[in-house]
Amino acid sequence: MSLLDAVVAAGILPSTEAKQGDKKRYSELLSQLLAQEVASGLRNAGFPNVKPLPGGPGERVFQGGLGPKKVDVSYSDEQHGLQLAVSIKTITASPYGKNLKNRYYDLCPEGITLHLRFPYSVMCALFCLPNAANEDVTAIRKVSTFERARKLLSTISGRREYTDPGEKFENIAMMLFQPKTEDSSVVPWIRLIDSVSAHELTESEYFDSIRQIFNRRNPHAAVGEDDIDNDQ
């Protein structure tokens, strides 16, 4: 399974002329499917029992510093509480820049409220836009919405220490995707891009990068290949 499988399973992207309800349902379905695939990728990277589990409920609610907060993908236990979270954000309908600031302002308080209660937790986000958002350059706006989003989100990515500002995320990655369309000759694909460096990542590299961030923060409870042998 892969993030591309989520894009394919979401079906055909509603046209610009489609009803608002159809556009909303597509975006919500894509987010749910991506959350399942991200959870699966993290389990394969060494994080046991990451939610959501196949066939299980979706997002979980954690009590944050400013009240309860829903988390799309989560790794937690009774001893430590929330240790790792991934927030899934999608913009799938044009004009793509219309809701960009709203999604940004959704992320900031999400990071704050969870980091207040769990300062050591690793907060990540996957921000997803269709390929058309990378092709909407105009004579007036000479930068695509996708590139604008990357630069904007890079300002709240890269939280390295648990004492760093709570609104910052440990990692924010971008996902550019070609959805299914009415034209069966169009082949779906995805690209993963780090918001800070703008470097493209494979899916394996993406999940490995999250694991490495987590293990730097939690050397006593490292997962996967970076596990620390306390007997040495």
Describe the structure.
The chain has 232 residues and is of the alpha/beta class. The longest helix has 25 residues, at 20-44. A six-stranded mixed sheet has the order 3-4-5-6-7-8, with helices on both faces. It has a two-stranded antiparallel ribbon with strand order 1-2. The chain contains five helices and eight strands. It has helices spanning 3-9, 20-44, 100-117, 145-154, 203-217, and strands spanning 60-64, 67-71, 73-77, 81-90, 122-130, 171-178, 189-194, 200-201.
Give the helix level as a range of percent: 25-40%
Order of helices and strands: HHEEEEHEHEEEH
Largest sheet: 6 strands, mixed
The portion of residues forming beta strands comes to 15-25%
Strand order of the largest sheet: 3-4-5-6-7-8
By DSSP (H or I, 4+ residues per run), the number of helices equals 5
Rg estimate, integer Å: 18 Å
Shape: globular
Quickly list its features.
single chain, 232 residues, alpha/beta, six-stranded mixed sheet, two-stranded antiparallel sheet, 8 strands, 32% helix, disordered C terminus
